[in-house]
Design goal:
Layout: H1 4-28, H2 36-57, H3 64-71, H4 74-87, H5 95-118, H6 135-171, H7 178-193, H8 195-212, H9 219-236
């Protein structure tokens, strides 16, 4: 039986989906659009993530152990990042990862909670057994399961694109210096907690290496990239242990697992 809290969680995802779709559509068609759609999208995200964070961590405790546990929780990280986007100058691409997560959560909520209220289940597979899901619910389940990993890969690559966007936006004066710094730290956390992020970084790193080392390229390109890579490795591996938040790493799609995975 779904609780009021569960409906609020789902409402946050539906709000994010609808408002981000409206905002993306206007941007793709080069039409003016109110920033209200952008901020409301992240308001929906904040509602959903706040519910999950409270559910998984309980009441905030004024001690270092609770704060450390919270900071290593990926749902807290996405909540804090959503708050930063909500309170900052709009970056359209920042909505994409949240919209992808919300699509899967909304479909799962529709399958498990909404459809059974309107569509009768199928007959049991054996006498006295539980009724089978409606064919539409089964199709949704199969689609979510088949496309989940690809969607998470899209999120991982999308977050790298967002990093490039905010770095370039700094030089174009489209965002503040704080934006790439905060988002780079966020991606540092994702590197340790998500295999999809590690795969995306490895792929992009390989493509850049192939480019700078290809025949005809100035040797300085490889030297500069090598130095930048070494600096990044030192920064990324200074304090955060590789086993951080192993319970939440990689993100699953099961119900109750979190704002990304509930």
């Amino acid at each position: 039986m779904a609780t009021t809290q569960h409906y609020m969680w789902a409402a946050g995802h539906f709000i994010l989906l609808l408002c981000s779709f409206r905002y993306f559509l206007a941007k793709l068609l080069f039409r003016s659009v109110s920033n209200w759609w952008y901020t409301t999208s992240f308001t929906g995200a904040l509602v959903s993530y706040a519910i999950v964070c409270q559910k998984s961590l309980g009441t905030p405790q004024p001690n270092a152990a609770w704060i450390r546990r919270a900071m290593l929780d990926e749902n807290v990280q996405y909540f804090l990042m959503a708050f930063f986007w909500w309170s900052s100058r709009p970056v359209t691409l920042a909505l994409a990862p949240y919209a992808i997560f919300s699509l899967f959560h909304a479909l799962t909520f529709t399958r498990t909670t909404l459809l059974p209220q309107f569509l009768p289940p199928g007959p049991p597979t054996q006498p006295g057994g539980a009724p089978t899901p409606h064919p539409l619910a089964k199709k949704l389940q199969v689609w979510v399961k088949a496309n989940y990993d690809n969607a998470m890969r899209a999120v991982a690559f999308g977050e790298l694109v967002i990093l490039a966007r905010v770095v370039l936006g700094l030089f174009a004066r489209r965002n503040s210096l704080l934006t790439p710094i905060i988002f780079a730290h966020f991606l540092r956390q994702r590197w340790y907690q998500s295999k999809f992020t590690r795969e995306a970084v490895a792929y992009v790193h390989g493509r850049i290496l192939a480019f700078v080392n290809s025949p005809g390229r100035p040797p300085v390109l490889a030297q500069v990239y090598g130095q930048a890579t070494e600096l990044t490795r030192r920064w990324a591996g200074t304090t955060l242990p590789a086993a951080a938040n192993a319970a939440g790493a990689g993100a699953g799609a099961g119900a109750g697992a979190g704002a990304r995975r509930q």
